[in-house]
């Protein structure tokens, strides 16, 4: 079980760690997408759910944040499913959507600081894991 290796076209091999990182990234994308969508529902259904700090430069209405998080969450979760199926398009969309999620959570810091910083860190890890993983590994590891 340990030491799983897969051949790359360049002759080197990708470790099981690379496969594990992408699997973890896909699972984290699904989980964070669902959590983000649930946070979006909370903002849409209850306008006073988010507590806003005073004098923040990037202040939006809570309902607007709800819709932003709902849409981003659904797209992140769908891309996570695609990443776990080994699709190249899903990895590209995953990097783009994780970047958008990180920026959205930066603007969301005054509402939920710890949660926002945690999601930014997870988004950065997801972006890294999706960028270092090769196409050959993706196609051969999730069949």
Automatic annotation (TrEMBL):
It comes from the Bacteria. The chain crosses the membrane at residues 21-45, 65-83, 88-108, 114-133. It holds the Pfam family DUF7144. InterPro entries: DUF7144. Residues 22-135 form the DUF7144 domain. Keywords: Membrane, Transmembrane, Transmembrane helix. This is DUF7144 domain-containing protein. It comes from Actinomadura barringtoniae.
């Amino acid at each position: 079980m340990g030491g799983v290796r897969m051949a790359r076209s360049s002759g080197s091999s990708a470790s099981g760690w690379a496969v594990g990182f992408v699997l973890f990234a896909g699972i984290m994308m699904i989980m964070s997408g669902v959590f983000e969508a649930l946070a979006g529902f909370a903002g849409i259904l209850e306008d006073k759910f988010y507590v806003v700090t005073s004098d923040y430069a990037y202040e939006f209405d809570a309902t607007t944040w709800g819709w932003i998080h709902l849409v981003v969450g659904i797209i992140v979760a769908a891309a996570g499913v695609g990443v776990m199926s080994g699709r190249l398009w899903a990895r590209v969309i995953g990097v783009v959507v994780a970047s958008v999620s990180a920026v959205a959570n930066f603007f969301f810091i005054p509402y939920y600081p710890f949660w926002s910083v945690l999601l930014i860190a997870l988004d950065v890890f997801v972006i890294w894991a999706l960028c270092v993983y090769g196409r050959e590994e993706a196609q051969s590891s999730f069949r």
